[in-house]
């Protein structure tokens, strides 16, 4: 096996794929298996290059002084202008004389042609996603649904593009080059680079507040669940009215734990039934695609039938309300045990099956974030299963139990209007998630995050026991709303749902089939990964329209609880924080994936979630 020629941290010249252009890049890592160097451009773009596409800087400097050289730097040497540039450098052209200016113009045109050619070659060859996902330096070009190289090239009209290309690929004097080289070679420019997905290495950039943050979350998140539930049980759930702590032993009951295990197993059995289609997930870092059976909606129907049968045989769902804290404790114990299991098995998992995060070497951090991307027992995918089944379907069952408990406790022949709204809105949300189950395969949870305490706890404890807070609250704090108010809240929920659903569908359909005639009216910025970034439709309105719809719905779920207490609004407040943080994480990943194309998207669509606000 040949040894590597360039060391990590070394500043070298990297060839732009499909072209003869070389840029200054810094080597960030080396993949021994694929024999690829991961290099980073000055604008943050990351790209995997073969050794043959990399040259030392000294070889370029030497050639620059020889005007007859045939290297990529030769053309620039005659005009004291280097083309060994990175896509991120600022333009600093200078006017001298008319002839020089003409010369420069010609040169600019030449650059544009070269750039077009490079792009054309790049698109034509359609390099594999694993490689291309790191290449981001294409010029802006908003197209209809067609990424063919011909159209792309036609769009690069010199007149319109020269300025932009100059800005993007930064023609400037060698003096400026030198300055930039000096800046570039400073170590601080390259600290804390996040390793890209294909090259498994130590997690350097810690999220969620690092070790301390994750430690606090492991303690505080479960405490928050119990705090909220205890508050809800109080007659006066004001924030300052701190609930008395229950005896620890009162939180545990083996029978309840048994029921929880039964529930989990039942859902596991449903998920393994050979009903529903089997689809492939997104390609993993090794190019492999995992298969998933899509039968969440069937599982929901079967669960509904099972619950219906229990009710028919006079089984009291009130038991769930009565032992709610114990159920939460059982789910917490189970998620902790599951997280320990996941952590231990991740230590032995093959490298290509690991998530980019979760390998910091700090136990607490890795335990929290998880390291194995798709832990499976045979064909049973633990993360995928937990994402949508026991917790999500459990949430609906809990809501139903609260509805029945309200009727029983308050001696009602029909549930309150508030309870009906909360149940219906959240039922719609869960049914939607199960109906469009396939869409979960492209979410960050499945494609990027490892499976650890964060997701296990989130899926099994947080979702069912915190998201059902409004229904739990309404049992102890009856709230009367009028029909017009109910109608207004319903309209709000429908607006939120419409935005949420159409935005998600627009993106999912576009990702599945960009050439779909139904999407022909949408425009997008092509990126070198082969994927486009929509800039019209919902995704041209704000950068996360689906989050906007989700937040509007969250508000509609809280409003039926009235304004006596802030407790039922916990969900919407928390959810805004969650989605703002999630948006920032996604933004960071997209910047890495798409580089300049992402920046251009951000310029075109400046607001993240709330138009004109954020
Ligand atoms: P999104 O569905 O918002 O997907 C983000 C990804 O979409 C990006 O990484 C990028 O991936 C792609 N993308 C971004 N911009 C564009 C664009 N302009 N054109 C095309 N593709 C683009 O991410 P989430 O997984 O966070 O959310 C999924 C849904 O789940 C949302 O509706 C959200 O509200 C909901 N959710 C609900 C939670 C809850 O607890 N109730 C918690 C978290 C999320 P790529 O380019 O690689 O395709």
TrEMBL record:
Name the UniProt record assigns to this protein: Delta(14)-sterol reductase LBR
A GO MF label: Delta14-sterol reductase activity
GO terms under biological process: cholesterol biosynthetic process
Bias (Basic residues) ranges: 76-97
Region (Disordered): 53-110
Listed pathway(s): Steroid biosynthesis; cholesterol biosynthesis
PROSITE patterns per record: STEROL_REDUCT_1 (PS01017), STEROL_REDUCT_2 (PS01018)
GO CC annotation terms, alphabetical: endoplasmic reticulum membrane; nuclear inner membrane
Keyword terms, alphabetized: Cholesterol biosynthesis, Cholesterol metabolism, Cytoplasm, DNA-binding, Endoplasmic reticulum, Lipid biosynthesis, Lipid metabolism, Membrane, Nucleus, Oxidoreductase, Phosphoprotein, Receptor, Steroid biosynthesis, Steroid metabolism, Sterol biosynthesis, Sterol metabolism, Transmembrane, Transmembrane helix
UniProt entry tagged with the keyword Endoplasmic reticulum: yes
Catalytic activities: 4,4-dimethyl-5alpha-cholesta-8,24-dien-3beta-ol + NADP(+) = 4,4-dimethyl-5alpha-cholesta-8,14,24-trien-3beta-ol + NADPH + H(+); 4,4-dimethyl-8,14-cholestadien-3beta-ol + NADPH + H(+) = 4,4-dimethyl-5alpha-cholest-8-en-3beta-ol + NADP(+); 5alpha-cholest-8,14-dien-3beta-ol + NADPH + H(+) = 5alpha-cholest-8-en-3beta-ol + NADP(+)
Topology in the lipid bilayer: Multi-pass membrane protein
Family statement: Belongs to the ERG4/ERG24 family.
Superkingdom as given in the UniProt entry: Eukaryota
Originating gene: Lbr
InterPro entries according to UniProt: ERG24_DHCR-like (IPR001171), Lamin-B_rcpt_of_tudor (IPR019023), Sterol_reductase_CS (IPR018083), Tudor (IPR002999)
Transmembrane segments: 212-231, 251-275, 296-315, 327-344, 448-469, 481-500, 521-542, 562-581
Keyword check for Hydrolase: no
Main location: cytoplasm
Principal EC category: oxidoreductase
EC number: 1.3.1.70
Subcellular compartments: Cytoplasm; Endoplasmic reticulum membrane; Nucleus inner membrane
């Amino acid at each position: 096996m040949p040894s590597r020629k360039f060391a990590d941290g070394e500043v070298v010249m990297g060839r732009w794929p499909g072209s003869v252009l070389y840029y200054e890049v810094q080597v960030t890592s080396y993949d021994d298996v694929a024999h690829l160097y991961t290099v980073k451009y000055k604008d943050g773009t990351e790209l995997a290059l073969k050794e043959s596409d990399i040259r030392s800087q000294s070889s370029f400097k030497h050639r620059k002084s020889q005007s007859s050289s045939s290297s990529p730097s030769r053309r620039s040497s005659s005009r004291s202008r280097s083309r060994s540039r990175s896509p991120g450098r600022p333009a600093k052209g200078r006017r001298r004389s008319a002839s020089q200016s003409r010369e420069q113009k010609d040169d600019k045109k030449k650059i544009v042609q070269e750039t077009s050619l490079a792009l054309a070659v790049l698109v034509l060859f359609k390099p594999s996603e694993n490689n291309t996902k790191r290449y981001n330096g294409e010029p802006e070009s908003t197209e209809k649904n067609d990424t063919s190289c011909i159209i792309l090239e036609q769009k690069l009209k010199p007149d319109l593009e020269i300025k932009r290309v100059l800005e993007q690929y930064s023609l400037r004097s060698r003096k400026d080059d030198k300055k930039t080289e000096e800046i570039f070679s400073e170590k601080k420019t390259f600290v804390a680079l996040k390793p890209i997905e294909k090259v498994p290495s130590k997690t350097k950039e810690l999220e969620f507040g690092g070790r301390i943050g994750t430690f606090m979350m492991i303690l505080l998140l479960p405490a928050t669940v119990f705090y909220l539930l205890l508050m809800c049980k109080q007659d006066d759930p004001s924030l300052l009215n701190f609930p008395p702590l229950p005896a620890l032993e009162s939180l545990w009951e083996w029978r309840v734990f048994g029921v929880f295990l039964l529930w989990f197993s039942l859902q596991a059995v449903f998920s393994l039934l050979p009903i529903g289609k089997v689809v492939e997930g997104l390609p993993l870092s090794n190019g492999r695609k995992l298969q998933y059976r899509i039968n969440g909606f069937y599982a929901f129907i079967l669960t509904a039938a099972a619950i219906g049968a229990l009710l028919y045989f006079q089984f009291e769902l009130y038991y769930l309300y009565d032992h709610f804290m114990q159920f939460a404790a059982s789910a917490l114990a189970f998620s902790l045990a599951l997280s320990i299991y996941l952590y231990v098995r991740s230590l032995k998992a093959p490298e290509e099956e690991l998530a980019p995060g979760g390998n910091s070497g700090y136990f607490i951090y890795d335990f929290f974030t998880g390291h194995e991307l798709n832990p499976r027992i045979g064909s049973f995918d633990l993360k995928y299963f937990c994402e949508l089944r026991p917790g999500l379907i459990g949430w609906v069952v809990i809501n139903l139990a609260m509805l029945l408990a309200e009727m029983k406790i308050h001696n009602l022949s029909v549930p309150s209007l508030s309870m009906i709204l909360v149940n219906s809105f959240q039922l719609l949300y869960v049914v939607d998630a199960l109906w469009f189950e396939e869409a979960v395969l492209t979410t960050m949870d499945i494609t990027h995050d490892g499976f650890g305490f964060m997701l296990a706890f989130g899926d099994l404890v947080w979702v069912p026991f915190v998201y059902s807070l409004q229904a739990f609250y309404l049992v102890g704090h009856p709230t009367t709303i009028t029909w017009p108010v109910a109608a207004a809240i319903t309209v709000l929920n429908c607006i939120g749902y419409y935005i949420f659903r159409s935005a998600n569908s627009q993106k999912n359909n576009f990702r599945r089939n960009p050439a779909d005639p139904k999407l022909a009216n949408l425009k997008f910025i092509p990126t070198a990964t082969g994927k486009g970034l929509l800039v019209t439709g919902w995704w041209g309105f704000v950068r996360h329209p689906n989050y906007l719809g989700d937040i509007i719905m969250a508000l509609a779920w809280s409003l039926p609880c009235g304004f006596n207490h802030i407790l039922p609004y916990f969900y919407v407040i928390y959810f805004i924080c969650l989605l703002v943080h999630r948006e920032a994480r996604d933004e960071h990943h997209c910047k890495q994936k798409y580089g300049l194309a992402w920046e251009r998207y951000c310029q075109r669509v400046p607001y993240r979630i709330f138009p004109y606000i954020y």
